Amino acid sequence: MFDIALRRLKDEVAAPMCQSIPSNVSPGHLTLIAFLAGLAACFAGAVSNDWVYPVSLWLLNRLLDCLDGSLARARGTVTELGGFLDLLSDFITYSLLPISVAFGQERSGVEPDWRAIAVLEASFHINNFVLFYIAAVASKRTTGELTSVTMWPALVEGFESGVLFTAMLIWPDWVAFISWVMAAAVFLGTAQRVVGLIPVLRRLDSQSTSLSKGKQRN
User: With 80 as the cut, is the pLDDT of residue 216 above it?
Assistant: First the structure.
């Protein structure tokens, strides 16, 4: 919901930090370290009885995840591979973290509500499918309508996800409640995109049909 508004602020805050990063440290190095910190946060969330360790590792993951893209833009070294690996590491970490917290609850003798975790994971997959489908169609079209659908602010984006995952790590007893709330917000955002996407796809199909008929006449 706040990602677009915070993007410029993020780059402004990250700029002086990027200047202090040695030239032999690449954005890819930061992505790798961020991924390892995210995995370590998930592991700590599953086995640690103290929230300080998993939260510290998670915040390190979030900091480096912000810096890798900013560093790439500052150095003019933005690549498709770098963007892919950045998103892949985020998706893996996002998927594992609620599972890890729930496993930690189970390990401590508290029976977690795995239904909440399953519904949350399902909401991630459905939302990602919609976004990836829009991106796939947009890559074959010159219209900006699909981009506008993709860029609609959702209730839960990167910033909100970070806040909610942090809350899970600090208050693991509330992981089920937070998961239900997060899943509902993700489903709502996905539904909003689908509602906006359907008429756009219909117009594109209509344009394609008209073009095909025009070519047949010629």
Answer: no
- Measured CA distances, 72 to 6, 172, 182, 210 (Å): 18, 35, 31, 43
Q: What is the pLDDT of residues 191-211, one digit of tens each?
A: 988 888 888 788 877 876 766
Q: Which of 44-53, 128-137, 162-171 is the least confident region? A: 128-137
Taking only the tens place, the pLDDT of each residue in 93-108 is 999 999 999 999 999 9
d(CA 201, CA 197): 6
DSSP string, 89-156: HHHHHHHHHHHHHHHHHHHTT----HHHHHHHHHHHHHHHHHHHHHHHHHTT---SHHHHHHTSPPSS
Residues 55-69 as b/e (b if ≥16 CB within 10 A, e otherwise) read bebbebbbebbbbbb
In this structure, the dihedral spanned by the alpha carbons of residues 41, 44, 49 and 53, taken in order and rounded to 10 degrees, is: -50
Q: Which of 139, 134, 120 is nearest to 193 (CA)?
A: 134
